[in-house]
């Protein structure tokens, strides 16, 4: 499959951008609830709620200035990494 | 005297990398009297089929989100406009997930409330027999099919759920309560035009009492063969 | 990066000290390598020898015993390939062959339950694929510590999740297995995975490199730093100190499975086979490229020249020994003719499977591996592949007599109907006796559409041919308690139970696979258990007339000095000419006569009753009579063929009592009936004789060679005649029907109560 | 995302702490590789590599000072949220 072997890392122009994807607050998160329940059983009774989402670390080659790259990642997040019907995302970095 | 060979309907079955129940869907189409036509994810070609099934499985490993990567396959570039133009499409399980990701159906499939994959025979009630895929069922008919999924809970915002209800677009509900946390016990829905249907449990695994819980699923595949349905 | 240790270096520095002990090689083994090569090994060669000569790859402690499977093999024409190949291949008629094998992934599953179990499934599936077959089903035999132990709560959900994740994603139906809890498996769970494949006779592939000039292709996932703890030791020892060794120590021993890539590999390989472009093929399992190249070359009596520079890497810092030893998953190695190479690569590209030529077959008879132009390996492949052979000391432990003398006859027994009822419910609700749906519902049982019977039936039954209805049945069994009391007969009991399960599903037993899970072979007591177990299995297979086609040995299953109970898991494969005649294990219609087949004596040593009710383990396991088992199987398969039977269920742990409870709750369809409350009751009367048999004995004894037969109404006389003809004792008990399991004059348990007790245990424990 | 909950000591005295869990760098991440492959097919060819991890948003009641709470969350992460054999974690906030 394409992209499994990263190209040589000697080029220093690779930035790491983080995309956080969380379920929208109104969407039921059974995983988070199960984890909160497990916290309580483990004695972490001060835990009120847990929500579980995804974190993507995207290594991306810089095509030009910082601006376009961030926009590209936002496009990528909106199109592929998150499903806007149930999820929302935030972008950090580089 | 000229003998007239009845034309059998051609039903395309898409194989994505990681599709699993494609052979089962083909078998069901053939059992119902149709002609299954394999469609390859990498070809921008629907091969002149009269209807399409997106089968169950783990397309692209279901990595990222179920159906999220398959949605961008070349064959989908043909399928999406064809579906919007009225081609009957049935997405089963992973196929349902792909249809939601491709926005051919509203809402999304989310993790089962029990957090586990669930393989169980379930009874579903056909709520809408006006789609091409369900016209053979009586309204309210209850059939037993196989549920086998980990991300099978249908979710949508309140407005969408209300719209599905008022427009009669819920195709099937779990008859004994949702086994996975699906909103409104929804097992399957149709798009606004009625030609695109998504179903979480597997009717193709209920076509033969030898290998499944009876024959209750067969009419999904025979309904589409009636001329009215494919018209 | 440091320069690797080359063959030239090795010749020039014969006195260089090497870390062979850290790699698990004894001084004597190291000396024998030096003799074989006529010089010290390079570090890459040492890496190869260390993995090839490990217990896992070389079977150095077990081979002397395993020979019996060949020496005592019953005459058969059913085997197309046998022990020594990746998996045995059995002719099932109509031009079809079936290949099946069971393998352990115990230790990795304890360290990282999810990934350990997942990659266990992946490994056995590649074994089957390498034989030229399409994998069509999996099974899993699992053993854990006490169900309520905190560590079991960590390990079990992870293991089940991993099997579910990997198997489901591959599209392989899971059609059976085992789930057992015992304190002896705390800290050492057993995760044994079985895969079954189907092919046409002509499709058989053997892992033998031949034809000098043929290309060696590595395909699948890139090679990364997975599971190369051993090589890391080597690398840090050879390449100096400080930073490097700190870095090396971080190498993960945990492999992460990629079932999606494996699914692509399956389809890709099958298309390669169909195109006729594969001369030989081998899966990459333990010890990766080192093992695949050595074994391919050794089996083909050829040489092979490989360049490691061509291996696609996920981590460019890997050294030659690390590349050789990497256990990255989802990789295969094939030999193809140069003229076919283009097509080979094209098919791989179609399935998005990266494929690279890394070398070719040579006439030299040597395995030669180069790196950056230097030769780093130059060995005789057969010498590395064969490995040392040990006759480990063995000794029947003195404790064996104490154990056998501790007769369960002294345990207080239930007498009244109420007490019998309570003990039945205790067993039906015990973790080992309870319904396994919490586990098995996580597995896809129906994908591929050929599952005729799956869990909770006695055997998995698969349709092989849709036109002719040819099919196969398969079951696995093992009983550590019996084997601890007597490893010889305990192993035969496991064999007999799997054999009986296949027959009770309507299948004619054909062949055997096994996974032998034991403690340390360096402990003479364990070695004695092992030797007895293998002898029992070989003698048993000879008596039953079904050959062992392959298997797997897992040693060192112990926590500290404490070994697990000896746990051979035996798989039996059978054939059904017409799967429409399969027998389910449950009650369906009402009013069907229920008949107990076989003799019942008072046998409670190692029984589930003694274990659950008294926490007792001692005495002797049930007596073995394999001729009686053969007769029973003949009656069951003939009864199924003649349409006399509606269902059958074998009796094993928990005896008649648990078997009846299971029959009430298991439907007559391929799966349990929908709805947690489903079921059909029965009204039965326990016979008055023989003298030894009181109600307790009838209900809870675990005498072997027994099964329940459910007759089609009207078939009573014909079936009685069939039993008489084969000399199988048949005792009419009553008939199916009603909403309770009723034993006249003793107790009645409503099916709903039985269901609640049987089905709530695992969900209550594991959520 | 930190600091959304005001630091007043009311009944609502709940802080949101984020725990990021990623596979250790040396562990194979087939999901991330598949996503990178999808990025390329979608035309995001500048993506060099993707790694996918988890993000937990833990709402936690303040037992005393900030110090102990952070330690509690670290314990929770090590014990429940991350699998130390193959994963590493980082804690942010409140
Ligand atoms: N881990 C497992 N995976 C799949 N199937 C299982 C597993 N454990 C048990 N089963 C299935 O559950 C059923 C009951 O198992 P068991 O009580 O061990 O059967 P028996 O003792 O009669 O051989 C069988 O169909 C068996 O194959
Ligand atoms: Mg059993």
Please provide a written account of the structure.
The complex is a heterotetramer, with 2 copies of chain A (94 residues), 1 copy of chain B (231 residues) and 1 copy of chain C (767 residues). By secondary structure, chain A is an alpha+beta fold. Chain A has a single domain, classed as Phosphoribosylformylglycinamidine synthase subunit PurS (Mth169, Chain: A). The relative contact order of chain A is 0.28. Chain B has 231 residues and is α/β, with parallel strands linked by helices. Chain B is globular and about 40 Å long. Chain B starts with 9 loop residues before the first strand and ends with a helix. Chain C has 767 residues and is α+β, with helices and mostly antiparallel strands. Chain C has a domain of 238 residues: Phosphoribosyl-aminoimidazole Synthetase, Chain A, domain 2, CATH 3.90.650.10. Chain C is 38% helix and 22% strand. Chain C contains 27 helices and 28 strands. In chain C, the strands form 5 sheets. Chain C has a 7-stranded mixed β-sheet. About 2% of the residues of chain C have low confidence. At the A-D interface, strand 1, helix 1, strand 2 and helix 2 of A face strand 1, helix 1, strand 2 and helix 2 of D. The complex binds adenosine-5'-diphosphate and magnesium ion. Magnesium ion (MG) binds next to loops of chain C.
- Helical content of chain A stands at 25-40%
For the secondary structure, the number of strands of chain A is 3
Largest sheet of chain C: 7 strands, mixed
- Give the distance, in angstroms, between the N- and C-terminal Cα atoms of chain A: 27 Å
Shape of chain C: globular
List low-pLDDT spans of chain A.
1-12
Distance between the termini of chain C: 50 Å
Largest beta-sheet characterization of chain A: 3 strands, antiparallel
Multimeric state: heterotetramer
CATH topology of one domain in chain C: Phosphoribosyl-aminoimidazole Synthetase, Chain A, domain 2
How much beta of chain C, percentage-wise? 15-25%
Looking at the overall shape, the CATH architecture of one domain in chain C is Alpha-Beta Complex
Average pLDDT reading of chain C: 92
Determine the strand fraction of chain A and express it as a percent band: 25-35%
DSSP helix count of chain C? Answer: 27
- The total beta strand count of chain C reads 28
Small molecules bound in the structure, each named once: adenosine-5'-diphosphate, magnesium ion
CATH level 1 name of one domain in chain C: Alpha Beta
What's the name of the CATH homologous superfamily of chain A? Phosphoribosylformylglycinamidine synthase subunit PurS
Counting H and I runs of at least 4 residues, what is the number of helices of chain A? 2
Order of helices and strands of chain A: EHEHE
């Amino acid at each position: 499959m394409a992209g499994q072997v990263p190209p040589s890392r000697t080029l220093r122009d690779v930035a790491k951008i983080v995309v956080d994807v969380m379920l929208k607050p109104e969407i039921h998160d059974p995983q988070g609830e199960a984890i909160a329940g497990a916290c309580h059983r483990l004695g972490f009774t001060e835990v009120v709620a847990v929500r579980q989402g995804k974190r993507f670390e995207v290594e991306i080659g810089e095509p030009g200035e910082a601006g376009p790259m961030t926009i590209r990642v936002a496009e990528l997040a909106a199109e592929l990494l998150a499903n806007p019907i149930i999820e929302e995302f935030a972008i950090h970095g580089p | 005297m000229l003998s007239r060979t009845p034309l059998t309907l051609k039903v395309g079955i898409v194989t994505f990398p990681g599709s699993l129940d494609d052979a089962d869907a083909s078998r069901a189409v053939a059992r119902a009297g149709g002609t299954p036509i394999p469609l390859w994810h990498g070809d921008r070609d629907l091969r002149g089929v009269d209807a399409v099934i997106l089968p169950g499985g783990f397309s692209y490993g279901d990595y990222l989100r179920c159906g999220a990567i398959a949605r961008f396959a070349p064959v989908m570039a043909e399928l999406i406009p064809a579906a919007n133009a009225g081609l009957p499409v049935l997405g089963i399980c992973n196929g349902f997930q792909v249809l939601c990701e491709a926005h051919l159906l509203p809402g999304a499939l989310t993790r089962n409330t029990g957090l586990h994959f669930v393989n169980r025979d379930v009874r579903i009630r056909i709520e809408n027999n006006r789609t091409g895929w369900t016209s053979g069922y009586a309204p309210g008919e209850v059939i037993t099919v196989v549920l086998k999924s980990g991300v099978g809970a249908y979710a949508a915002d309140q407005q969408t759920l209300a719209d599905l209800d008022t427009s009669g677009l819920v195709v099937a509900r779990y008859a004994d309560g949702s086994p996975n946390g699906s909103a409104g016990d929804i097992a399957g829905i149709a798009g606004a035009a009625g030609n695109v249907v998504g179903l979480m449990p597997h009717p193709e695994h209920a076509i033969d009492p030898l290998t499944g819980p009876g024959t209750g699923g067969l009419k999904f595949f025979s309904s589409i063969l009636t001329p009215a349905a494919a018209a | 990066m440091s320069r690797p240790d080359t063959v030239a270096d090795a010749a020039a520095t014969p006195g260089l000290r090497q870390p062979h002990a850290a790699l698990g090689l004894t001084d004597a083994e190291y000396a024998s390598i030096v003799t074989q090569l006529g010089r010290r090994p390079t570090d890459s060669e040492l890496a190869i020898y260390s993995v090839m000569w490990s217990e896992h790859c070389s079977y150095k402690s077990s081979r002397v015993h395993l020979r019996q499977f060949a020496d005592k093999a019953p005459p058969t024409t059913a085997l197309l390939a046998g022990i020594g190949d990746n998996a045995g291949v059995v002719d099932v008629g109509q031009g079809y062959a079936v290949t099946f094998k069971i393998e352990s992934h115990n230790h990795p599953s304890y360290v990282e339950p999810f990934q350990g179990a997942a990659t266990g499934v992946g490994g056995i599936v590649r074994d089957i694929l390498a034989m030229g077959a399409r994998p069509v089903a999996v099974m899993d035999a699992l053993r854990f510590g006490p169900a309520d132990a905190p560590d079991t709560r960590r390990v079990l959900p992870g293991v089940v999740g991993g099997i579910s994740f990997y198997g489901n994603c591959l599209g392989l139906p899971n059609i059976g297995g085992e789930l057992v809890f015992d304190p002896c498996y705390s800290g050492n769970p057993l995760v044994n995975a079985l895969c079954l494949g189907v092919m046409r006779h002509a499709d058989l592939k053997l892992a033998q490199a031949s034809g000098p000039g043929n290309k060696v292709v590595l395909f699948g996932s890139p090679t990364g730093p997975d599971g190369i703890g051993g090589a890391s030791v080597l690398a840090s020892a050879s390449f100096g100190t400080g930073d490097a060794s700190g870095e090396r120590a971080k190498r993960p021993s945990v492999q992460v499975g990629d079932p999606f890539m494996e699914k692509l590999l399956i389809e890709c390989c099958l298309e390669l086979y169909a195109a006729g472009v594969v001369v030989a093929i081998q899966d990459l399992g333990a010890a990766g490229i080192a093992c695949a190249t050595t074994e391919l070359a050794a089996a083909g009596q050829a040489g092979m020249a490989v360049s490691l520079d061509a291996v696609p890497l996920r981590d460019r810092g890997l050294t030659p020994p690390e590349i050789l030893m990497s256990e990255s998953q989802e990789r295969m190695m094939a030999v193809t003719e140069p003229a076919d190479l283009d097509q080979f690569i094209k098919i791989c590209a179609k399935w998005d499977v990266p494929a690279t030529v890394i070398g070719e077959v040579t006439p030299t008879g040597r395995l030669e591996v180069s790196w950056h132009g230097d030769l780093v390996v130059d060995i005789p492949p057969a010498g590395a592949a064969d490995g040392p052979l040990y006759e480990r000391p063995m000794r029947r432990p003195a404790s064996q007599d104490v154990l056998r003398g501790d007769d369960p006859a002294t345990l207080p027994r239930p007498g009244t109907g109420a007490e019998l009822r309570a003990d039945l419910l205790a067993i039906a609700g015990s973790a080992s006796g309870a319904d396994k749906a919490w586990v098995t519902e996580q597995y896809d049982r129906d994908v591929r559409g050929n599952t005729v019977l799956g869990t909770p039936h006695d055997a998995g039954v698969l349709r092989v041919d849709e036109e002719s209805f040819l099919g196969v049945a398969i079951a696995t069994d093992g009983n550590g308690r019996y084997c601890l009391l007597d490893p010889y007969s305990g192993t035969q009991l496991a064999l007999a139970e799997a054999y009986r399960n296949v027959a009770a599903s309507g299948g004619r037993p054909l062949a055997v696979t096994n996974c032998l899970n034991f403690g340390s072979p360096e402990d003479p007591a364990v070695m004695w258990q092992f030797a007895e177990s293998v002898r029992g299995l070989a003698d048993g297979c000879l008596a039953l007339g079904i050959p062992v086609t392959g298997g797997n040995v897992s040693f060192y299953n112990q926590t500290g000095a404490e070994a697990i109970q000896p746990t051979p898991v035996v798989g039996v494969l059978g054939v059904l000419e017409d799967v429409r005649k399969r027998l389910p294990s449950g009650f369906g219609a009402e009013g069907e006569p229920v008949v107990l087949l076989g003799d019942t004596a008072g046998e409670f040593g190692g029984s589930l009753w003694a274990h659950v009710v008294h926490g007792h383990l001692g005495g002797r396991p049930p007596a073995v009579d394999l001729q009686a088992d053969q007769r029973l199987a003949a009656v069951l398969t003939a009864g199924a063929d003649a349409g006399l039977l509606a269902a059958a269920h074998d009796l094993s742990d928990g005896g008649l009592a648990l078997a009846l409870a299971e029959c009430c709750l298991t439907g007559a369809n391929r799966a349990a009936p929908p709805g947690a409350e489903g079921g059909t009751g029965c009204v039965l009367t326990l016979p008055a004789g023989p003298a030894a048999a009181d109600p307790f004995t009838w209900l809870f004894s675990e005498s072997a060679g027994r099964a329940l037969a459910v007759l089609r109404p009207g078939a009573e006389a014909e079936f009685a005649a069939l039993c008489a003809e084969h000399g199988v004792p048949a005792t009419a008990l009553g008939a199916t029907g009603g909403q309770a399991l009723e034993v006249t004059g003793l107790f009645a348990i409503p099916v709903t109560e039985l269901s609640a007790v049987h089905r709530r245990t695992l969900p209550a424990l594991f959520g």
